[in-house]
Write a structure and sequence with these properties.
CATH topology: TIM Barrel
Number of strands: 14
Largest sheet: 8 strands, parallel, barrel
Family: Belongs to the glycosyl hydrolase 1 family.
Oligomer: single chain
Strand order of the largest sheet: 1-3-4-5-7-9-11-12
Distance between the termini: 12 Å
Protein name: 6-phospho-beta-glucosidase
Structural class: alpha/beta
Helix content: 25-40%
CATH superfamily: Glycosidases
GO molecular function, one term: beta-glucosidase activity
InterPro entries: GH, GH_1_N_CS, Glyco_hydro_1, Glyco_hydro_1_AS
Keywords: Glycosidase, Hydrolase
CATH class: Alpha Beta
Number of helices: 14
Order of helices and strands: EHEHEHHEHHEHEHEEHHHEEHEHEEEH
CATH architecture: Alpha-Beta Barrel
Strand content: 5-15%
Radius of gyration: 21 Å
Length: 479
Amino acid sequence: MSFPKGFYWGGATAANQLEGGWQEGGKGISCPDICTGGTATKSKRITPVLEEGTFYPSHDAIDHYHRFKEDIALFAEMGFKMYRFSIAWTRIFPNGDEDKPNEAGLKFYEELIDECLKYGIEPLITISHYEVPFNLTKKWNSWVDRRMIDCYLNFCRAIFTRYKGKVKYWLTFNEINSATTAMGAFLGQGILNEIKEMEFMDQVDVPQNRFQGLHHQFIASALAVKMAHEIDPNYQVGCMQIMATSYGLTCNPNDQIENQQKNHLMNWFCSDVQCRGKYPNYIKRYFKENNIEIKMEEGDEEILATGPVDFYTCSYYMSNCQTADKTKEGGKGNILGGVPNPYLKASDWGWQIDPVGLRYSLNEIYDRYQLPIFVVENGLGAYDTIDEDGKVRDSYRIDYLRSHIEQMHEAVLDGVDLKGYTPWGCIDLVSASTGEMAKRYGFIFVERYDDGTGDFARRRKESFYWYKKVIETNGEDLK
């Protein structure tokens, strides 16, 4: 049961969730830096004015900024072939709109990239991973304004030029389709419709702004693909989507239509634009019925047509069901909507565990686009504890990952061109949705806690040794 030769096994992180050093090396303030901590039951808050005495998890995170060599050595010990990480926009352009990049920021990531290459680890870099300069939110309400495109391309030009010959794979925007939901406006786009303190899960939503912002991101992505190929023909640029797999709750045809419409909006709209180079016909009715009018400039359609991505990547954590019966209620943890599937179990956070859904999704994606695919996020958030003997026994995580890897292999046998797998949070980090450390995903335990205590010490979990064996055998030994 081995995977194709050259398969990229690795792990994934994001700058604002692990680096810390939030004002070191000339870094500016990004949107995550104004988000407080939270828990599974208490939402984190957005505080446009930083509050003295309030805990902001991104400010220290897990101190990767000072410990990246130690962390990458641990990744190498597991045998990583690829490490997916992001570049903090505000390390390169502190305010987002400067003409010249910050040399200290460029140097930091160059050292990080070189450390990966020293161990034979291929970098897969996300350019914008839920991290917009807060200055641009205050100035223009971020991606609502078309001027963001030039700021983003200036960022791309700086890193494409600096890391030429060292990096091959890039992703334009993390989980770009998160902006088809109200939660994604601030998280993915930096859009804050009222500049005041509010709960992260209860933002003021203006759908017109989200979808106009998406259009500007689509244009930016297409132009970034073109720029990358011009700077280095070896560059490969991909999209990154949330794969929110869903099924009709019953065989009632109305449930199937409901599911199809939700799939169109959540799972296919953004990737249809980025992979096919044009807006799909089905979105026109949605825009009309929701009073959304996309303002395009002359030449935008041509830009999209000439800038499709080279490959497709996605996150995959869970699935849900859709029904036309409005009396049905959603279940705990269904943050992307829908209702629970009665055939599935759930994580501590209520996310339903569906490994077969990954095989199903990979087939759907590949049949639709015929592009190489990477699964760049997948994992189990859980309450990990250190036993009296100092060990972290996370057999539940091993079970989760094993079952998903088995289904990825089934997809490969189905004919899917699957290139790599980088499970999320390969080292414990701050949760993007809740702002907590207690929701741990990693193969490596980090002694950092939600009250701000902990010495950041790293220790290998049971899953660390298991994943090392998986990589050594190219997926043959999953026991």
